[in-house]
Amino acid sequence: MSALLYLIPIALFLGLLGLFAFAWSLKSGQYDDPDGAAVRILNSDDKPL
Question: Where are the transmembrane segments (predicted)?
Fold first, then answer.
């Protein structure tokens, strides 16, 4: 039972850390264009050799 006194705050801290990391990635634009690279490689303007 005493182990829960340590594990619960650690789990809450890690959960909040993950939430802040996700919020930071949203704010920094990591998810702005998820399909852009996949479409760009298919619509390449390069001429074949």
Answer: 6-26
